[in-house]
Design goal:
Its main location: membrane. By secondary structure, the chain is α+β, with helices and mostly antiparallel strands. About 45% of the residues lie in helices and about 20% in strands. It is built from 5 helices and 4 strands; from the N terminus they run H-E-H-E-H-E-E-H-H. The chain has a two-stranded parallel sheet. The protein has a two-stranded antiparallel ribbon with strand order 3-4.
Length: about 100
Protein backbone atom coordinates (compact mmCIF):
# COMPACT_ATOMS: atom_id res chain seq x y z
CA UNK A 1 0.00 0.00 0.00
CA UNK A 2 2.84 2.40 0.80
CA UNK A 3 4.26 1.86 -2.69
CA UNK A 4 0.93 2.74 -4.32
CA UNK A 5 0.70 5.91 -2.21
CA UNK A 6 4.24 6.93 -3.17
CA UNK A 7 3.55 6.35 -6.87
CA UNK A 8 0.30 8.35 -6.67
CA UNK A 9 2.36 11.45 -5.82
CA UNK A 10 4.06 11.19 -9.25
CA UNK A 11 7.61 11.66 -7.95
CA UNK A 12 10.55 11.93 -10.32
CA UNK A 13 12.49 9.20 -8.50
CA UNK A 14 11.61 6.50 -5.96
CA UNK A 15 14.22 4.40 -4.13
CA UNK A 16 13.26 0.85 -3.13
CA UNK A 17 15.66 -0.89 -0.76
CA UNK A 18 15.14 -4.67 -0.96
CA UNK A 19 11.38 -4.35 -1.61
CA UNK A 20 10.85 -8.12 -1.84
CA UNK A 21 12.86 -9.13 1.25
CA UNK A 22 9.94 -9.21 3.71
CA UNK A 23 7.31 -10.41 1.25
CA UNK A 24 5.79 -13.85 1.03
CA UNK A 25 6.69 -15.40 -2.36
CA UNK A 26 3.09 -15.17 -3.58
CA UNK A 27 3.12 -11.38 -3.05
CA UNK A 28 6.24 -10.72 -5.14
CA UNK A 29 4.16 -10.95 -8.34
CA UNK A 30 1.77 -8.30 -7.04
CA UNK A 31 4.67 -6.00 -6.23
CA UNK A 32 6.08 -6.58 -9.71
CA UNK A 33 2.75 -5.55 -11.27
CA UNK A 34 2.65 -2.31 -9.26
CA UNK A 35 6.26 -1.42 -10.02
CA UNK A 36 6.02 -2.27 -13.74
CA UNK A 37 3.06 0.06 -14.24
CA UNK A 38 3.69 3.12 -12.08
CA UNK A 39 0.76 5.51 -12.01
CA UNK A 40 1.28 8.28 -14.53
CA UNK A 41 4.62 6.96 -15.77
CA UNK A 42 7.70 9.13 -16.00
CA UNK A 43 9.00 7.99 -12.60
CA UNK A 44 12.51 6.59 -12.32
CA UNK A 45 12.70 3.63 -9.95
CA UNK A 46 16.00 2.78 -8.27
CA UNK A 47 15.72 -0.71 -6.79
CA UNK A 48 18.33 -2.27 -4.51
CA UNK A 49 17.95 -6.05 -4.56
CA UNK A 50 19.82 -9.31 -4.26
CA UNK A 51 16.95 -11.00 -6.12
CA UNK A 52 18.50 -11.72 -9.49
CA UNK A 53 15.26 -13.02 -11.01
CA UNK A 54 13.42 -9.94 -9.76
CA UNK A 55 16.11 -7.66 -11.21
CA UNK A 56 16.03 -9.48 -14.54
CA UNK A 57 12.25 -9.14 -14.72
CA UNK A 58 11.90 -5.51 -13.67
CA UNK A 59 15.07 -3.66 -14.72
CA UNK A 60 15.90 -1.72 -17.86
CA UNK A 61 19.43 -1.39 -16.54
CA UNK A 62 21.38 -3.34 -13.90
CA UNK A 63 24.22 -1.87 -11.85
CA UNK A 64 26.44 -4.31 -9.94
CA UNK A 65 28.25 -2.74 -7.00
CA UNK A 66 31.01 -4.03 -4.74
CA UNK A 67 32.38 -2.09 -1.79
CA UNK A 68 30.31 0.97 -2.71
CA UNK A 69 31.72 1.15 -6.24
CA UNK A 70 30.10 0.37 -9.56
CA UNK A 71 31.80 -2.73 -10.93
CA UNK A 72 29.59 -3.39 -13.94
CA UNK A 73 26.45 -1.95 -15.51
CA UNK A 74 24.26 -2.44 -18.54
CA UNK A 75 21.11 -4.19 -19.76
CA UNK A 76 20.06 -7.13 -17.55
CA UNK A 77 20.80 -9.78 -20.19
CA UNK A 78 24.29 -8.41 -20.71
CA UNK A 79 25.30 -8.05 -17.05
CA UNK A 80 23.52 -11.15 -15.72
CA UNK A 81 24.15 -13.55 -18.61
CA UNK A 82 27.51 -12.34 -19.89
CA UNK A 83 29.28 -10.43 -17.10
CA UNK A 84 32.66 -8.93 -17.99
CA UNK A 85 34.10 -8.70 -14.48
CA UNK A 86 35.34 -11.57 -12.36
CA UNK A 87 33.66 -10.22 -9.23
CA UNK A 88 30.29 -10.16 -11.00
CA UNK A 89 30.81 -13.70 -12.33
CA UNK A 90 31.78 -14.95 -8.86
CA UNK A 91 28.70 -13.43 -7.23
CA UNK A 92 26.31 -14.69 -9.90
CA UNK A 93 27.78 -18.21 -9.79
CA UNK A 94 26.89 -18.36 -6.08
CA UNK A 95 23.34 -17.04 -6.33
CA UNK A 96 22.10 -18.53 -9.58
Amino acid sequence: MAIARALALLPGVILFDEPTSALAPELVGELLAVIKNPAGGGTTLVIVTHGIGFAREIADRVVFMDGGRIVEQGPPAEVLDRPNRGRTRDFLSKVL
